[in-house]
Design a protein that fits this description.
single chain; mainly alpha
Length: 137
């Protein structure tokens, strides 16, 4: 949770820098500058309050192995499905990762990435099953 909070703070700082870059260009508006500064300060304050809330909430709590195993198994199923999509020749997304995967498939063909995705997917399914099974004993 600490990493998530730090990531949120970095993201807030990056967007604040972008907003400052846009707002400081002519014509300058003091009201907009103060409003944006107050908004991002409020978001930063919320991340600090999130730290206090999660630290007090997580004292003595553990993650349920059933829930963790289920999430790991769903990730493995997603990778197996991605392997099927590669072999079946279904279209990729138009985003950056989809275009990168399409260029890799153009160079090496669909089978090597499909084998990697299937291998990782089956490993995650196996791990997820065993983590889920720990809860029954």
């Amino acid at each position: 949770m600490r990493i998530l909070r730090i990531l949120l703070q970095v993201l807030i700082a990056a967007f604040y820098g972008l907003a400052l870059f846009v707002l400081l260009r002519p014509p300058f508006s003091l009201g907009a500058f103060l409003g944006i500064s107050a908004f991002f300060a409020f978001l930063f304050l919320l991340t600090l309050l999130l730290r206090e809330h999660t630290e007090s909430r997580l004292v003595g709590r553990q993650i349920s192995p059933r829930v963790l195993g289920t999430f790991i198994a769903f990730a493995g199923f997603g990778l197996c499905y991605m392997s099927f999509r590669l072999v079946a020749g279904l279209p990729f997304s138009s985003g950056r990762r989809g275009q990168l995967l399409a260029s890799i498939v153009d160079v090496v063909g669909p089978w090597p990435p499909a084998i990697v995705f299937a291998g990782l997917g089956f490993q995650l399914l196996y791990i997820g099953y065993h983590v889920f099974r720990v809860a029954k004993t």
